[in-house]
Design goal:
The protein is mainly alpha-helical and 233 residues long. Helix content is 58%, strand content 12%.
Length: 233
């Protein structure tokens, strides 16, 4: 009886420890999910408002350096493009695979006791990638064109493109510095330049912020890697 009680107590303590450990994981998982959902919701609300209230190329000037400028791009972040219809499909499929892997890796890392310096930025990257993937996957199906008109959501005649062929909605334009390249610069000397020229959205900003956090706090995000390097040294 004594041995049985002893084993039962040990088993009970093990289950209690596992419960509290899983609870700690759940807290981190909820924070990661919260970040992802918050970014996606805000990103999509703004994009839908832009699509249903502005025509392509229309803009609101908040300040000389801060402009809401409606544009769309069929490719990558910050208005970059990627190889026509087949390139667009390949990019969208690549995003699906990459997002699935990053999401799996994020929650696997949580169970491996990853810290917030890793969880938060990776959550931002996943959220941004999902936000732009939603545009690519569904906006062509649920909106008509925005050229010379304000787009309609769920138009009677259908959308402007098929599944995974939608265009990403961008709106933030920050022409902070306007100037001219010096004449001595080859090929572009004397031409005007603008910094920052790319038009982007909340999803792009989320990805960029996540990447910068990982770079700045690399040693804290990957403490095991830093310890391994010290041991090798």
């Amino acid at each position: 009886m004594t041995d049985a009680c002893f084993h039962f107590q040990n088993k009970l303590k093990w289950k209690q420890a596992l419960f509290f450990m899983e609870k700690k994981y759940r807290k981190k998982a909820f924070i990661a999910l919260g970040i992802i959902l918050l970014i996606i919701v805000v990103d999509q609300i703004l994009k839908i408002w832009i699509k249903t209230n502005m025509m392509m190329g229309e803009e609101y000037r908040i300040a000389d350096w801060f402009i809401i400028h409606f544009t769309e791009n069929p490719g990558m972040a910050f208005g970059m493009e990627f190889g026509g219809d087949y390139g667009k499909l390949a990019l969208s499929l690549f995003r699906l695979v990459a997002i699935a892997f990053m999401t799996w890796y994020l929650f696997r890392s949580i169970t491996k006791k990853a810290n917030y310096y890793f969880i938060v930025p990776l959550s931002l990257i996943v959220a941004g990638a999902l936000g732009n993937l939603i545009d690519s996957a569904f906006y062509g199906l649920i909106f008509n064109e925005s050229y010379h008109q304000v787009a309609q959501m769920f138009p009677p005649d259908g959308g402007y493109a098929g599944f995974l062929h939608g265009r990403v909605v961008d709106m933030f334009y920050f022409p902070i510095i306007n100037g001219t390249y010096p004449d001595w610069v080859p090929r572009i000397g004397g031409n005007p330049f603008t910094f920052f020229k790319p038009v982007f959205n909340i999803a792009d900003a989320s990805i960029t912020t996540g990447v910068f956090i990982l770079i700045i706090f690399y040693k804290r995000a990957f403490p095991d890697s830093d310890k391994a390097k010290k041991k090798e040294a």
